[in-house]
Design brief:
Blueprint (H helix, E strand, L loop, with lengths): L7 H8 L16 H4 L17 H15 L4 H12 L5 H10 L2 H7 L6 H9 L3 E3 L2 E2 L12 E4 L7 H13 L6 E4 L4 E4 L14 H8 L2
Antiparallel strand pairs: 1-2, 1-3, 3-5, 4-5
């Protein structure tokens, strides 16, 4: 399957905010956004100071898409599915993104980034309701039990991720986690209020509705 293989830090600089693509590094002074507070590409003096309405909408779409580590086709399918659901399309879109298995593993604190979580899923280290699932786009439902494979529970990467999650208290309210067991449960489906990232999903809906 196709994936982005370029520099992750350039994506953060382009969007002007840390997208947590490198986990713990994004919280330190080594973060590229903190070191270079301007987008990659042209020198500062040659950059446009104003953007068109389309450009603003496009940048917001890119920000959300890159935060969750998706390519255009994957993101477009999420949007199309959300538009067919009842309720507000933008809210549905973010809820579906949050319910992806790789994101759930990341939110539970078993990985320090979504990229790392996706690798764990692809390598069959994650069980959903006692069944190994190696599809990172798998949509999790309410009541599902997510657990790390027993043979992977002593992995140093997992332990470091759990330690970081405990330190930052970043586990959302819609999941419960037993860190000692490397296990968690979906208490309810995520809502827009649960997502604290600085996203304006309305701009994405406007962009795709044109």
């Amino acid at each position: 399957m196709a994936k982005y293989t370029g520099p992750s830090c350039k994506l953060c600089r382009r969007e002007g905010m840390p997208l947590m693509l490198k986990g713990k590094r994004c919280l330190t002074d080594k973060c590229a956004v903190k070191k270079k507070k301007y987008p990659p590409g042209l020198p500062k003096k040659n950059r446009r100071s104003k953007f068109s309405e389309y450009a603003i909408q496009l940048r917001e779409k890119q920000k959300i898409k890159r935060s969750y580590g998706l390519l255009e086709g994957q993101f477009r399918r999420i949007f199309e599915n959300s538009s067919r659901m009842r309720g507000v399309t933008g809210d549905n879109m973010l809820s579906l993104l949050e319910r992806r298995l790789d994101n759930v593993v990341y939110r539970m604190g078993f990985a320090s980034s979504r990229t790392q979580a996706r690798q764990m899923v692809n390598h069959k280290h994650i069980l959903v309701d006692n069944v190994i699932v190696n599809i990172s786009s798998f949509i999790i439902n309410e009541g599902a039990i997510i657990e790390v494979q027993s043979k992977f529970k002593e992995n140093l990467m997992l332990k470091d991720s759990i330690k970081l999650s405990k330190a930052t208290n970043s586990v959302p309210e819609w999941v419960s986690v037993e860190f000692d067991e490397a296990k968690g449960k979906i208490l309810r489906l995520p809502t827009r209020q649960d997502i604290t990232d600085n996203f304006n999903e309305r701009l994405v809906v406007e962009l795709y509705s044109k």
